[in-house]
Write a structure and sequence with these properties.
With 547 residues, the chain is of the alpha+beta class. The protein has 17 helices and eleven strands. The chain folds into four domains: 2-60; 84-299, no CATH class; 302-393, no CATH class; 402-537, no CATH class.
Length: 547
């Protein structure tokens, strides 16, 4: 491009360097030199403009000269610097919306309901018996023992260090705080108590309590005299390895900054891993960028439209209420007030205040008049505009507007498509819970169960990770997704099972979230009872032929 431009300018100069220039050189050499210098300056100016144009690239979105992008100011920074200055405000505003905005409250309720459900995940132990040298019968017996012990541990309020929540409710709290605050910390502790043979306990800690100790800035190293074992700098309350950036320890303070508790604020350093490499702290957050220390709330990208929609809804509601108030104003010669209508909300008042209400009769003084305007409410355009904004909010939240509003007014296909889109999001959250929370909770439980000899697992403690994984192999069965037209969807699941695309175990989980292996003994009992009843109600008839 530059060579073509240079050639065009050279040709233009050659064309201009004609009779006038030759005459000017002889008659007015200074003017001719100035004219030549001007051509050179124009050439260099043109070349600089071409270079600037080439450097700016061809993307309109990056243009700084277009009217639509002139005021678009951006900057580049690492994720912690970009988030740390705003994170506390984002948390506070997200929680405020969850408390006071029906749309935000409903979105979080969907996450809790669809992800965790009414009973949480169910363990389906699947020991790799072939690898461990176990026959099928021994494998099944051991799997039943594991599932029985897990139920004793997980579905028990002793699971919670605070002794308030059993496993599914504890997990619901994890998911709720994770999404409303951006992250949540589950800390492992050990405390043996009556009510459970297991001493491994868990405790949830809110995101606000994980901060840099002693108010030091990001990148600074805590005092080794105060906190034993310090090895590197802290970022947003997390001490990190200066080489690998892996978490080394977490710092939790004992109270919120605005707490009415008068105790002095102190920090506790909790190592990220124990000496055997097991996690002491499970940090649930979505890590969008490399080396990002903390997560951001679920509502962070849409806080402004959420708040504006709340204000708009409140304004429309108030306008509708105001238009529904009916008051009669009476002007009498003496300016006397009249008694209220029976059943109205009007009360006798001794002052001169005039208050509108339903069924009010207000007496005015002589000469006073009332002027009012019609608010035109309810607004017929409210629903279309509201639905349009909710659709945009639903895109950011991963929840279609039909799910957010619980309004399935379209066809079966459209409603099912909305459900499938929402379940793609909810399934992804379940997957993160499986990998990043349940996996570590189950590992800690299993190790204690083996140590207590409640689960026989030869080679688990001293064996390598392959053996431990073979013993811990499992499947988490979550509550079923629900169906819009059960007769159609169950038929499709049955056809998929009959064709060999899915197993009976998978089909059972899809229909009602059940466990086929757990159902099997019960089905045998029911089948036997049905045969016994049939033998009584429909006895076989025999005929004896007589000769």
């Amino acid at each position: 491009m530059h060579q073509e431009l240079k050639k065009a300018i050279t040709n233009a100069n050659a064309a201009n360097n004609g009779f006038v220039d030759r005459v000017a050189t002889k008659i007015a050499p200074k003017w001719a030199a100035s004219r030549a210098q001007s051509r050179v300056d124009r050439y260099h100016s043109t070349m600089r403009l071409a270079a600037m144009t080439a450097a700016s690239g061809g993307w309109k979105g990056a243009s700084k000269s277009r009217n639509s992008t002139k005021g678009w100011t951006t900057y580049t920074n690492d994720p912690d610097s970009q988030n740390s200055g705003d994170i506390q405000v984002l948390r506070d505003r997200s929680r405020d919306q969850a408390r006071n905005n029906p749309m935000a409250a409903g979105a979080l309720l969907n996450v809790k309901t669809y992800v965790v459900g009414d009973r949480g995940p169910k363990l389906n132990a699947q020991i790799d018996g072939e690898f461990l040298g176990m026959d099928e019968s021994a494998t099944e017996d051991r799997e039943k023992t594991i599932q029985r012990e897990w139920d004793l541990y997980f579905n028990n309020c002793e699971f919670d260090l605070d002794r308030e929540l059993c496993g599914p409710d504890f997990l619901t709290q994890v998911v709720y705080n994770w999404f409303s605050s951006g992250d949540v910390f589950t800390v492992r502790a050990y405390k043996k108590r009556t009510g459970s043979p297991y001493g491994t306990k868990l405790q949830n800690i809110e995101a606000d309590l994980c901060t840099n100790p002693d108010y030091i800035a990001d990148g600074e190293t805590p005092s080794a005299d105060t906190y034993a074992g310090v090895t590197g700098p802290v970022y947003s309350g997390i001490e990190k390895d200066p080489v690998t950036n892996a978490p080394v320890a977490y710092y939790f303070k004992n109270k919120f900054s605005g707490s009415s508790n008068r105790d002095e604020i102190k920090w506790t350093r909790v190592p990220a891993f124990d000496r055997r490499g097991r996690k002491n702290v499970i940090h649930m957050h979505i890590k969008d960028r490399p080396k990002q220390s903390r997560g951001v709330p679920y509502f962070a990208p849409i806080l402004e439209p959420l708040k504006q929609l709340e204000r708009y809804t409140d304004a429309e509601l108030m306008a509708a209420v105001t238009s529904g108030l009916f008051s009669v104003f009476v002007t009498s010669p003496e300016g006397r007030s009249m008694s209220p209508i029976a059943g109205s909300n009007q009360t006798e008042s001794k002052d001169d205040a005039i208050e509108m209400g339903y069924g009010n009769v207000v007496g005015l003084k002589s000469g006073e008049t009332i002027e009012s305007t019609s608010p035109g409410r309810p607004n017929p355009n409210f629903d279309p505009f509201f639905d349009s904004i909710v659709k945009q909010i639903g895109v950011a939240l991963g929840q279609p507007s039909e799910i957010l509003l619980k309004a399935f007014q379209s066809s079966y296909s459209a409603s099912r498509a909305a459900m499938l889109e929402a379940w793609r999001f909810f399934d992804s959250i379940r997957g993160m819970v499986n990998r990043n929370w349940l996996e570590y909770v189950y590992e800690n439980f299993y190790e204690e169960a083996v140590a207590l000899q409640r689960i026989p697992a030869p080679g688990y403690i001293r064996g390598d990770e392959t053996i431990r994984r073979a013993w811990r192999n499992r499947l988490w069965v979550w509550p079923a997704k629900g169906m819009i037209r059960p007769e159609v969807e169950i038929k499709a699941i049955t056809q998929s099972k009959d064709a060999g695309f899915t197993t009976m175990e998978e089909a059972t989980a899809q229909v009602n979230g059940g466990d086929y292996n757990s159902n099997y003994p019960q089905r045998l009992k029911e089948a036997k009872k049905e045969r016994d009843i049939k033998d009584i109600t429909e006895p076989e008839t025999t005929t004896n032929d007589t000769i």
